[in-house]
Amino acid sequence: MKQPLVRFGGAILLATAMAACSGTNAVPVANGTDVAPQVQQFLRAPATKAVAGVLEITQADREMARSFVPGRPHIMVPTFTHHAKPASAVGYPLDMTCQTPQCPVMNASVAYNVYVTPDGKTCKDEKCWGDPEEFLKAISGSPLVGLVQQYTKGAPTAYTYGSSVAVKYKLAYTNTFYNNDLWTILSAAAHHFKAVGTNAEYHIFLPPGVDTCFDQTSECYSPDNLTSFAFCAYHTAVLFGKTPIVYSVEPWQDVQVTVSGKKVYGCQDAKVPPGTNRLNSGTASTLLHESMESWSDPLPNTGWFNSIYGEEIGDTCAYLFMTKEVVGGGSWFVQQIWSNTYHGCADTP
Questions:
Q1: With b meaning 16 or more CB within 10 Å and e meaning fewer, what string describes 139-172?
Q2: Is residue 35 classed exposed, middle or buried when 0-12, 13-18 and 19+ CB atoms within 10 A define those classes?
Q3: Which of 43, 73, 203, 309 is most buried, with most CB under 10 Å away?
Q4: Could you tell me which of 190, 202, 203, 167 has the C-alpha nearest to residue 54?
Q5: DSSP of 88-109, one letter per residue?
Q6: Are 84 and 319 in contact (CB under 8 A)?
Q7: Does residue 205 sit in helix, strand or coil?
Q8: What is the pLDDT of residue 78?
Q9: pTM over 0.85
């Protein structure tokens, strides 16, 4: 919902500048047309190898991270700061519109899950966060994903799960991940998968018990500090040479906080059907939210966006309009997505 314009390491970049570089689809590095020296070096370097499914951070990862030019993040706010629209604000005022002539979208995307492990042993696979891999595999080609076609023109089967890897990254003096930490992890994953441009997205999963904040702001995922707890997740992109790298940050979603003396779930719906696995569904709902928004607005505020309310297609329906999705042999209780077709929240095209 909220669109922070954040200063990253002394540089501010508006997403419109990234859109001007990338057009509707970013220049894929695979064809070698991005001549920036750091991109050419990236192309020539062999893919890094994971040992027992875990990547170690290298100097090349740190150098790549330092070359990134940041874009504008788009956050998903916690339950206790999310507000329903007035009853009179229904229909067309809530619809999404393209914000730039280029209207960047992802008409196909491969998802890569990146699990942050502090020691190479804890949280080195999806189990810490439920079953996000199974969810991404299950929704590919489903009517739920088909909803995004009205924005991207991409076939539901064009949105797929690729693979996953763990990245070993231990914080030295704090429990908070900042931008450079996340960009170093992102660089490690990019060196491993060799996938950049607007046909790939990295989902960085942070383990329980850690926070993450934007540099030089008090806007954080911080269940241990309610005054700075401003988001549950976000998506954005960095510019690597002339090529965007799209990613989302997915902190641990099964978290409770105390608001006005009452214990509440900070990042998922308060009421769920009996038998619902809160960890699985909380992770899946936020992952759906960020994926759909990335596909329809990968360089935030340049694709499909509602400038009146500052919202993307996942925001309006978050926490308020939920649905049980039974797909691919599994079931998850997740939010619905805004549909311009129906002028409302939906889970079908």
A1: bbbbebbbbbbbbbebebebbebeebbbbbbeee
A2: exposed
A3: 203
A4: 167
A5: T--SGGG--EE-SSS----SSE
A6: no
A7: strand
A8: 97
A9: yes
